[in-house]
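Message: A physicist's question: would you kindly supply an amino acid chain plus C-alpha cells?
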Amino acid sequence: MTAPAPSARPSLRRTLLKLHRWLSLGAAVFWLLQALTGILIVFHWEITDAGIAGAHRPTDLAAIERRIDTLALPGSAARAASIWTAAGAADRYNVYYADAEGTDRSVRIAGDGTILHMPRPDEESVMGFLVGFHHDLLGSWGSWIVAISGVLLCSNLVLGLVAAWPKRGTWRIALKPATRGPAAARLYTWHRAVGLWAAIPALVIAATGTMLKFEDGIGDLIGAESVSLPANPPAGEPIGFAAAARAGLAAIPGSTLTQVAWPKPDDATWRVRVRAPGEIRRAYGGSFVLVDANTGKVRGTFPAGEAAPANAFMSALFPIHTGE
C-alpha cells in the first residue's frame, strides 16, 4: 500500500501573491479615493484663487496692516492670529483672526489689503472639502484611518514588487505587456508591467504621505528640532505686522513672505516664514525669522538651506509627496 504524498506547501511567491491580492481588494476603494482627491488638490491653491475675482495688487505691508487693524481693532477683544500667502495667484493672502465674540474667522485679501472674499465661519469650499478628506477624512479619527491605510499601502506595494520581480534575463519580457494570447494572461502581464514601472514612484508618494501623518513622531525619532527660541517677555507696546514682516524679509535677502504669526501673550516674538531663493517648497517655503516684538530686532534666522539634515529631510517630505 502506497502512502499518500504530502501536499506541497505553497511557495513564498504564491503566498505573497495571495496576500497582495486580498490586501489590494480590501482597501482598493479607499486608495482610489485617496489617489483621486490627491490628484485634484495638487493645484487647489490655484483653483481656489481662480474662483475669487479681483485684480492683482502688489504687496503693500503697511496697507495690509491697516486692513488687519480694521478686522481686529487694537484694544478690542478681537485678535489677529496669523496671515498666510494664498499660494495661488501672486500677492494674495489669508488673514486668520478671532472676532470680538471669539469666533474664528478668515478673510482673503489682495496685496493692498482689499478684501476679496470673507467666508462665513461655517462655510466650506469644494476644494477645502477635498483637502480635508484627503488629509484626515474630515476628522481626527479619520486621520488615524488615513495613516494606517498609508502603512498598509506601502507594505502592499512592497509585497507586489517582490511578487512581480522578474527572474534574471526576463526583465524585457516583464516590462512589456503581452499583446497576444488569452485575455486573462494579457491582463496579468499588463498588471505586472504597470506595477514594475510605477511601484517605485507610487511607493515614494505613499511613503512620504504616510510619514507626514506621523510627522511629529518621525521628527523626534530622527532628531529634527523645531524652530524656536526661549520665550521673550513682553515689554511695552509691540511693533506692528509691517515692521516685523520687513525685518523678516531683510534677514533673508531675496525671500518671499509666506506667513506671519502674531506674538503670544507670554512671548513677544513675531514668527515670520519666508520662501528663500532655491527652496524646493514652492508654496510656503521652509525658512524662518524670529523677530523681537519689543524692539523690532531679529532674534534668530533659520534659512532652510542651512537646516540640519534631519530638519531638511522633514521639510522635503511635503514637496516630494505633492510634486511641488
Observations:
- The beta strands are 79-85, 92-98, 104-110, 115-117, 256-261, 269-275, 287-292, 298-302.
- The longest helix spans residues 183-213.
